Description:
By secondary structure, the chain is α+β, with helices and mostly antiparallel strands. The protein has a single domain (2-170), classed as PPM-type phosphatase domain (Phosphatase 2c, domain 1, 4-Layer Sandwich), CATH 3.60.40. The chain is built from 6 helices and 7 strands; from the N terminus they run αββββααββαααβ. The chain has a 4-stranded antiparallel β-sheet. Strands 1-2-5 form a 3-stranded antiparallel β-sheet. A hairpin with a 2-residue loop joins strand 3 and strand 4 (57-60). It is globular, with a radius of gyration of 17 Å.
Amino acid sequence: MLIEGFQAAHQAILELAAEEPELCGMGTTCSAAILQNGRLHIGHVGDSRIYLIRGGRAEALTEDHSLVARMVRDGLLTPEEAEHSEQRNVLTAALGVDTESVAADFPLQPLELVPGDIVLLCTDGLHGLVSPVEMAQATENQSLTQACRELVGWAKVRGGPDNITVQLLGIRKVER
């Protein structure tokens, strides 16, 4: 379902750009998740991210499709240099960009979730300004709604030059 959804969105963007030339070259990132029988299936393209918060720690489940992420993987930049690079928003893959099929990641093995897990989906407007440590801290001792507000608030106070989108999914019990 995720692969079909990403492909349909990709095609819709390409078709709209073909109909309206001023939209040529537009694209978007996408991170999506399906929770089924206690297992998390994800799809991802671009530099939006999905994190798993478990045991008070946030871990990225996705890798950015960006020039600086590739440079870090290739050893050309350190993670610290990448954070401040002027090229950090240059994407290497996105929905609606030039090709017939979308170059997205769809891990074959779903992630087994446990009660207490929190799944965080966000745009670079959030993860570029709020650390994984802060993401995990925001979800402790308050509702997920309040945590979302706090995370967005932190990103805004820190400059928020990009759109800031965040969604939290809390796992209360797991039925398999």
